[in-house]
Amino acid sequence: MYKSATLVDNDIVDLTKVDATITQELKDIHSVNINLVHEFKEYTFGDRLKKSKIELGLSVSEVAKLCNITNSVISGYECNRYYPTKEVLNLLSSKFDIEYLCMDGYTKLVYNFDIFLDRLKLWITKNNYTREEAAKKIGVSSSLFRYWFNGGIISISTYSQIYINLDKYDLFA
User: Fold this and answer.
1) What digits encode the pLDDT tens for the residues 28-85?
2) H or E element: which one contains 163?
3) What residue segments make up the domains of the chain, in order of their start?
4) Which SMART domains is this protein grouped with (predicted)?
């Protein structure tokens, strides 16, 4: 075994002793508390998904595998470029607190779309509206209205356009 030494300020320094000192100093540091979770915002579904994923110690790949989608789609959710379908939200609910993830906005409406449709039907009946009249009041076409009642889901762009009307008529689930 070779002994390490170097010349510092015209003195020979035994590096094994320096290494031992540094190693002991590192051992003396008991813990470093790095808390990344508190750095995340919680304004959107993507923010909450990212925070929850880290709290659960999951990787993007693990979440993608859980949902049978690609890593890039999960990353898109976290960056608020994409929004999940009801099927993906149902899959996420097996590992995540779905009430927290979908606490407001578009994902809450998507996750609770059946409840939204029930409220919409009740509102139509209560006010004696035809579906065409109701669609006009909300600000969508009657064909889009039919699409919803036949199993289709609201798009993010439509949601953004009619949000105020949904709130005005208290139709959020």
Assistant:
1) 555 555 555 456 788 999 999 999 999 999 999 999 999 999 999 999 999 999 999 9
2) helix 156-168
3) 37-97, 113-168
4) HTH_XRE
CATH of 37-97, one of 1.10.260.40, 1.20.58.480, 3.20.20.140, 3.50.50.60: 1.10.260.40
Q: Does residue 77 contact residue 83 with C-beta atoms inside 8 Å?
A: yes
Residue 127, classed as helix, strand or coil, is coil
CATH class of residue range 113-168? mainly alpha
| Rounded Cα gap, residues 145 and 74, in angstroms | 29
Quick one: how far is CA 110 from the chain centroid?
Answer: 14
Closest CA relative to residue 89, chosen from 79, 103, 56, 81: 103
**Strand (E) or helix (H) holding 6:** strand 5-8
Radius of gyration from C-alpha coordinates of the chain: 27
